[in-house]
């Protein structure tokens, strides 16, 4: 057996997906299955006076119509699981169906259950809801104003929490040679996985067992929450995450509809399916970012940064979503210094309720926002002191690891300066600067953008989870079952949904046991089969669940070795194991294969005294610390002054994500993250009217990145193994969304330097860029 | 209950029929009536292309066609493209070049690519990216989809050049 870790192995997941035999939630069809639809509020803020359901109930094929009053004593509100301490948090839980008042456009007010999808949609048209409109507030800064509408009587000024970390002595700013300050807007975006949310619930009235197949990145968290909400024991609820069409954080959150179909299935004693339409998804599934960040940076004239102070006003939407409070506080605040050795740092966040769809995690969750503000501030500082932004980075980058930042985060591995040097070389920075100079002489607007980002990943130590108010552990569980035939099944509590761990985990185990990849199966996403786990998000699957996998595999090898020594009649220390063969030192003809030992362990005819039969290993790995992927990204853009169009000409990235198990899959993760990060920088934005109507509520209005928008990405890796997990992995899924927005914006602002443009808010649409050019050149 | 009409189509080489409401979308006919769930639905405004199938030789979005409009048509869905044992070159391309991650948009993307490669067996990178304009993938950033299409085109070109052997050459020297 040759080593397979580090090889670009074709994915084991793919044959079923490319032949149309995947099983996504909407593909599930059960006998007698009914279909549910949700009546959603047309207003962003209104009292519900009456709901007329009689006409809908008369429609042939309609089985039931539920309103908020019907379900309020049957399903508890869905609680946020991240109650950040020390910030006077007032959590507002999502309720299954609004009862007296709706707080955002799209909030569900009634559910129809019918014999078919088409009838269920017809019935929605027959439900009449009488509303009394209330004043609306959608913008978080507007929501803080004295005269702003108040959404909840017990939440003055709509402030859900005021959080602070770190402290910068005032003298640092007073005495600083240079202080720059900038207001930066992380606009609201939507994760938009290609598969919308959905759920199928099936209830056995005899046993009382309820099964819900649903689109979740963390089935066990869903089980805990829904069992509690529905008032049934955790042991009577099985959550299954079947094949899933992407998540990107939007499927971490625990929503209400999945519990509603669960209730309907229990009451009607027939399976019930609900699947979001895309326009419904835009309204009902979490939005993200939407933070207004004002950062001050204190430094010296020669480019040394002394302190950073960030103030974040975060739009939480109408309710506190699952991780809604943690994203703009802990996830954001701990990383405000980025990859730079900055002695003092302070982060403050005000969380604000508004009449909008609740916000939650989206690929990177807080870290992209932190990275954007520091990377933009570096460039703004560089501009102020007249220094090349690359030089400023070199002056301040973390010099050596381990390094503890001002917020107490321990950057684990890698060479920050070396990574930057490699990226500069890859793009020929010196040559590029010359090219830019020439281009400018000819009136061409060429811009160079850079980011030397770092992110906090591999969530994470459970002790830390407890300290930061996360309502659960963040360890992970992997177990390995060696069957009598020597074939192997991996089980993990992480719940990958497109990231390829079915292959990468098999690669790890194939090397550990010296067996072919074909002999290894992978199971995840089922609370009945997997004892416990915390799911897939925060680039934690490979560092944490992979850590557990590695330990579990070692435990199996340890036991197998004892059996081999026993069978070969030699002391344990004389047995060597390599490439699937247990052999005796200096007697290579005396050996046992892994397969033979698997059979011996399972038949148990001749095991050492006191040894239990079978060959299974399990590990519950709780990492001692987080992991910190980092890298240097550089891009070249050209702006067309006549149209304001930004053309992305080159994008070079060098990422240190620790040990890489499958470079092809790793590169795919980089590309995907970049497309989303570049999308946020240039095209994507979720827009509300003043009345709280979502104006960007379809794929016609929300600019999803297309193939023709991108050049070929030039990606490479440096592998500095992390010391905090057995695989040395640091996580890779969120590098692109963390790095790209500032890389692109820095490049566009650089391109517009001849016009004196210092900053523009994302997305940098042609209209915005054109206006920036022409308003300046017109002397306005 | 609206009146139902008979629809007969040939799907992946097999004749199939159903009684449908006039408003039933082709994608629902395929998924809900014929249990061909490989064709997916990713939006409701005809933008995402996850539902793309071949209809009488053309790549079309099956969410934008009524089932009764397809009466008498010949349809190929992803299930008919190739099998696990005998993958179509496009499927091979996507597998070998990592052209998919979650795999949800993939059936539709592959059918759109099928439409492209029928017309152009040697597309440039720009032509491939242009041809993908009717589909949305949120996972891959498209780069490996482009590579997958290039690889598939290469495989198809190889296949097409293979049958040139003596027994395939007629007396007039034409290649059959």
TrEMBL record, chain A:
Domain Aldehyde oxidase/xanthine dehydrogenase a/b hammerhead intervals: 19-135
Keywords: Molybdenum, Oxidoreductase
Pfam name, any one: Ald_Xan_dh_C
Superkingdom per UniProt: Bacteria
InterPro entries in UniProt: Ald_Oxase/Xan_DH_a/b, Ald_Oxase/Xan_DH_a/b_sf, Ald_Oxase/xanthine_DH-like, AldOxase/xan_DH_MoCoBD1, AldOxase/xan_DH_MoCoBD2, AldOxase/xan_DH_Mopterin-bd_sf
UniProt entry tagged with the keyword Oxidoreductase: yes
UniProt key word Oxidoreductase: yes
The protein's name: Molybdopterin-dependent oxidoreductase
Organism, scientific name: Neobacillus paridis
Taxonomic path: Bacteria, Bacillati, Bacillota, Bacilli, Bacillales
TrEMBL record, chain B:
PROSITE patterns, per the entry: 2FE2S_FER_2
Cleavable signal peptide: none
Any Pfam family the entry gives: Fer2
Source organism superkingdom: Bacteria
InterPro entries with a match to the protein in the record: 2Fe-2S-bd (IPR002888), 2Fe-2S-bd_dom_sf (IPR036884), 2Fe-2S_ferredoxin-like_sf (IPR036010), 2Fe-2S_ferredoxin-type (IPR001041), Beta-grasp_dom_sf (IPR012675), Diverse_Oxidoreductases (IPR051452)
Keywords: 2Fe-2S, Iron, Iron-sulfur, Metal-binding, Oxidoreductase
Residues of the 2Fe-2S ferredoxin-type domain: 5-81
Name the record gives this protein: (2Fe-2S)-binding protein
Species name: Neobacillus paridis
